[in-house]
Design goal:
alpha+beta; 20% strand; globular
Length: 122
């Protein structure tokens, strides 16, 4: 096993800390990329607690209407993605990160973002 400065998956977190409690807005948020096998254009679909919550289209050549159409077509439940991918494997592919990985965000960064938002809203 390669040792890293921070545990990178659930098993290492459990081994290192035993029990963890996260207080975080982003907890249990998954990002899935739906990519066309023909054009390689893609849309990022976000899921929170297993429910579809939104999409991000960074590809400037993909029309917003088409990105929204893909968003509507993708299952609302994260657990249905495998079956949906099997049904659409000829035209689309899913890129999904390892579910046991976590992203650590420095508390200072979060405080600065909150401070900027409060300044802009107040």
């Amino acid at each position: 096993m390669i040792r890293t400065e921070f545990p990178t998956n659930r098993a290492e977190l459990k081994e290192q800390f035993g029990y963890l409690s996260f207080q975080c807005t982003f907890i249990n948020t998954d990002v899935v990329v739906v990519r066309s096998r023909r054009t390689y254009k893609y849309v990022l679909i976000t899921y929170c607690c297993g429910r579809k919550t939104g999409f991000i289209c960074e590809d400037e050549t993909l029309q917003w209407e088409k990105a929204f159409e893909i968003f509507k077509e993708v299952p609302s439940n994260y657990n249905d993605l495998d079956q949906w991918e099997d049904q659409n494997e000829e035209r689309l592919e899913l890129l999904v990160p390892n579910t046991h990985n976590y992203v650590f965000i420095d508390d200072k960064v979060i405080r600065e973002v909150v401070k900027v938002r409060e300044k802009n809203n107040g």
